[in-house]
Recover the amino acids of this structure.
């Protein structure tokens, strides 16, 4: 019988793609849902990319203990993706901190009790690169939680990784915990109604809803690469570390380059104008979401050293341009079927 993998966050952009890839690779997948009524919709979306006979659902909430023993019992591996992604400001920090910190602790404790071999946790590249002003961030770089640039989302991810390090120190006999730290994630979503922050950002450029593109750059990664790296990290024996960065290239990807690629391939709506950095600084004073996003990256190099990921996990990122075009094609299909929001 094939190995069982428990996946959290299957309703999300990344979790759904990871579950689909695991099913394609022959694993059995048990996915957690806060609301099991979402199961059939998730199954239908995944069925377009993978067989779903070996996909099962259980109810579990990151903010409650109930359900986690059932979720992980019998699983060889756990891939913990579930955690809110909000790049702008939030009215209450607990919206991000509670699921990121308490949820990670619950998943790790349940995995230990169930004898899980390895847990792979999704974090973010900004927890390594959020304080680096020169050179490239490496897996051994950790952004301090009190860094003035760190927004609430970054701090919640930093806190979750601290839970992981403390758990690993307290449990040397296992399970092993590996953290995957991708940049901003683009790529074609399986859910035609996907509206996560990164897809919404991309859609604003693709649709021309933004008359000009902010002159911002972030490390980025394709969702399919992110899924493959998670699954490789789950089973690869010779890991040189416990933390792996994922980005298209060492240099961060520029938002105006997304617009340029789209225009070069026939998208007449993609903006030609760019909002320069000095204007963004002014606008950020009057817009809390822009301020949170801009100040968290202003002055940083945002370069990513993913050499360990490539070496240990035998991974090569797909071209940035191909990912942009595939994401655009998915949005076009959404529009043509009437699923655009």
């Amino acid at each position: 019988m094939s190995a069982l993998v428990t996946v959290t966050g299957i309703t999300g952009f990344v979790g759904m793609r990871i579950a689909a890839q695991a099913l394609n690779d022959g694993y059995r997948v048990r996915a957690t849902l806060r609301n099991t009524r979402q199961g059939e919709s998730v199954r239908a979306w995944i069925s377009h990319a993978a067989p779903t006979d070996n996909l099962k659902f259980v109810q579990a909430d990151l903010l409650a203990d109930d359900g986690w023993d059932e979720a992980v019992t019998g699983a060889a591996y756990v891939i913990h993706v579930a955690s809110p992604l909000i790049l702008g400001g939030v009215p209450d920090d607990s919206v991000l901190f509670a699921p990121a910190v308490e949820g990670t602790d619950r998943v790790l404790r349940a995995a230990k009790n169930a004898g899980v071999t390895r847990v792979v946790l999704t974090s973010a590249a900004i927890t390594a690169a959020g304080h680096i002003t020169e050179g490239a961030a490496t897996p051994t770089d950790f952004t301090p939680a009190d860094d003035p640039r760190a927004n609430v989302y970054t701090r919640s991810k930093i806190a979750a990784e601290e839970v992981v390090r403390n758990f690993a120190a307290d449990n040397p006999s296992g399970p092993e915990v590996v953290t995957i730290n991708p940049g901003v994630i683009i790529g074609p979503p399986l859910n035609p109604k996907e509206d996560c922050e990164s897809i919404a950002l991309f859609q604003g450029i693709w649709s021309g809803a933004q008359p000009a593109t902010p002159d911002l750059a972030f490390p980025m990664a394709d969702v399919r690469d992110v899924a493959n790296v998670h699954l490789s990290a789950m089973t690869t024996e010779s890991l040189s570390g416990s933390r792996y960065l994922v980005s298209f290239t060492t240099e961060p990807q520029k938002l105006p380059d997304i617009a340029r690629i789209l225009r070069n391939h026939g998208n007449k709506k993609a903006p030609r104008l760019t909002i320069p950095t000095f204007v963004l600084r002014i606008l950020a004073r009057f817009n809390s979401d822009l301020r949170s996003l801009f100040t968290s990256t202003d002055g940083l190099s945002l370069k990513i050293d993913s050499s360990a990921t490539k070496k240990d996990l035998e991974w090569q990122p797909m071209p940035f341009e191909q990912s942009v075009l595939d994401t655009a094609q998915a949005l076009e299909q959404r529009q043509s079927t009437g699923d655009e929001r």
Notes: The mean pLDDT is 93.
